[in-house]
Write a sequence for this structure.
């Protein structure tokens, strides 16, 4: 019978880091992955370029993006934080570059190079990898995990690192198995719901603008129960609705508003300018285009392509009017639109578009000094299995590097 010091279930970023580190610490390690290759999701990250971390070297500032969960993270980040991520990858021949919003990428711009670096790390310290092996369940004997039951039989281990990921992009292998097992073991597991995810919009004009990004703008979301939320920054129109970092990072809040039904949103194209100032701008533009129709004269007022969106909301008679005969009242209609172009949010794009899911094991049930379960002394839990909501921008993978490293070292 096979017998290992450590079995790592799942060959994603967190699992590979944990396996490599445990082996580096002298343990006999087996990594089990149900896919034929490790790092299927990792290879898709950052649009194939892998936003490997966020180059915020002040851990307190870095963790300020993790909401309430940050209190659990100071301890593991004191062992392995952003600085260590840079040192780890660069020291292994993968130079990193930092782009806007401190997002760090491999200089090669290839996510597959990140996977390769981790595979090399595991090979260097003799991690045994078995691909195409699906773990069916964890086997428990007297409050300890004695090993794992796979589709090829039982494998015993002194410790097990669970790194099966969450439940987004299921085709990459992250089918939520670990979440089910943890629940079965009596752990509190919060339901996985798509978190950092684009929003679906009802109106066709939004979809027609697919590819257009507008900045600055302010978007306000209003739920049917009267709750509202406002965000300012850059918005990206897509063929299904709206996206971009601002929207992705607002989705968690918008999801709460969506519980009451479709959400009425409005885009303010002149954030920070009162309506009377906007009206003055409109007058200036009209002055320069006296003999043109409103349909044409309004074009300079909005980002290229968006005049069609305005046209959707204005009566045809007004659009065809020469601007020198447009009345003050009619101008008010236009100003109202520039300050609040309406659209309807009907939902999020769901699991398949989610960058991360917020579900996972309740953090109070993990001893984050070691990433060990507080119920099973030889079970370690890492990566997307942790119930930690965070923004896009390299924060998720940093969580994998940190939790994987700490679990590997303690397993
Ligand atoms: C499109 C996309 C882009 C992203 N871009 C970024 C980015 O640029 N930066 C960033 O920080 N984060 C990004 N993320 C998030 C990041 O990919 C995840 O946080 C990360 O992959 C989680 O790693 P993990 O090791 O916990 O799990 P996963 O990467 O999900 O890996 C889990 C592994 O476990 C295996 N497995 C599952 N069940 C079993 C089983 N029963 N038996 C054996 N093996 C099993 C799976 O096949 C899989 O290989 C992105 C996510 C997506 C979907």
């Amino acid at each position: 019978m096979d017998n290992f010091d450590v079995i790592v279930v799942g060959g994603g970023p967190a699992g590979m880091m944990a396996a490599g580190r445990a082996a580096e610490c002298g343990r006999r390690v087996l990594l089990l992955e149900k896919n034929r290759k490790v790092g299927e999701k990792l290879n898709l990250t950052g649009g194939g370029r892998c936003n490997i971390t966020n180059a915020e070297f002040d851990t307190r500032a870095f963790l300020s993006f993790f909401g309430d969960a940050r209190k659990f993270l100071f301890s593991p980040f004191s062992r392995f934080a952003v600085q260590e991520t840079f040192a780890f990858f660069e020291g292994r021949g993968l130079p990193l570059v930092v782009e806007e919003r401190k997002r760090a990428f491999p200089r090669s711009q290839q996510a597959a190079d990140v996977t390769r670096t981790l595979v090399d790390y595991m090979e260097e310290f003799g991690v045994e990898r078995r691909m195409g092996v699906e773990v069916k369940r964890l086997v428990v004997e007297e409050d300890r995990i004695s090993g794992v039951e796979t589709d090829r039989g039982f494998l015993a281990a002194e410790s097990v690192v669970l790194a099966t990921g969450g439940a987004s992009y299921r085709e990459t292998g992250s089918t939520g198995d670990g979440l089910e097992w943890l629940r079965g073991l009596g752990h509190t597991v919060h339901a996985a719901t798509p978190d950092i995810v684009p929003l679906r919009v009802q109106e066709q004009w939004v979809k027609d603008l697919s590819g257009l990004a507008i900045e600055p703008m302010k978007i306000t979301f209003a739920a049917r129960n009267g709750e509202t939320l406002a965000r300012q920054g850059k918005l990206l129109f897509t063929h299904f609705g709206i996206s971009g970092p601002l929207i992705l990072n607002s989705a968690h809040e918008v999801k709460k508003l969506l519980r009451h039904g479709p959400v009425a949103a409005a885009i303010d194209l002149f954030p920070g300018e009162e309506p009377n100032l906007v009206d003055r701008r409109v007058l200036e533009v009209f002055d320069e285009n006296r003999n043109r129709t409103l349909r044409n004269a309004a074009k300079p007022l909005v980002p290229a392509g968006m005049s069609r969106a305005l046209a959707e909301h204005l009566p045809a008679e007004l659009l065809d009017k020469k601007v020198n005969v447009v009345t003050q009242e009619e101008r008010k209609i236009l100003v109202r639109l520039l300050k609040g172009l309406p659209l309807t949010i009907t939902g999020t794009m769901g699991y398949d578009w989610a960058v991360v899911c917020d579900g996972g094991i309740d953090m109070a049930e993990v001893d984050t000094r070691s990433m060990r379960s507080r119920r099973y002394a030889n079970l370690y839990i890492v990566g997307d299995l942790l119930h930690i909501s965070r923004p896009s921008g390299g924060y998720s993978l940093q969580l994998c590097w940190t939790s994987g490293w700490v679990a590997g070292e303690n397993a």
